């Protein structure tokens, strides 16, 4: 190249200024190649139990394929965000106002769908094409541990009260679609409130409900300032 990179001295061979400059460039090149080979960090995203596949798809579209879903109860989501345990969280609404604790958090409605009635094939409602709250009189309701999403539980209970239905609550927690479906098939007086697109097994039918309650899914995101 016509440039001397090394020179002899009384202590041996040492790099020239040009040699030192070339060594710095080589070091930076090696570090850059190393960064290219390092996997991008996952975006940890909290989601509650039973999150529908359509919601997960929406979240993947928004955050990309590097999302790592973490099971997180709605009631614990704000604390997890404040502590930096997750980058964002999907929660079941309604969402409470946490005052100054919400500083640096963004809340947006991600999805809202009406709930219908899930019944077993031996239910007296199974032959219906639609039901009203009055039709649900005398039926028990599949329920969950209210501590996981207390405001969502309150919203459903208020809807029941407004429509004159006071069902006995059958807590199945932790449950899962399979256990709920089995319980519905075995107990004709048991119903569940679910979105239409939620997966369910054979021997279980979904019926639209007049003036239904809704399931709201909110996205809570930490601002860039909070994440840094």
From TrEMBL:
Keywords tagged on the record: Activator, DNA-binding, Transcription, Transcription regulation
GO cellular component: protein-DNA complex
Gene Ontology molecular function: any one: DNA-binding transcription factor activity
Domain LysR substrate-binding: 38-168
InterPro entries (alphabetical): LysR_subst-bd
Family membership: Belongs to the LysR transcriptional regulatory family.
Protein name in the entry: LysR substrate-binding domain-containing protein
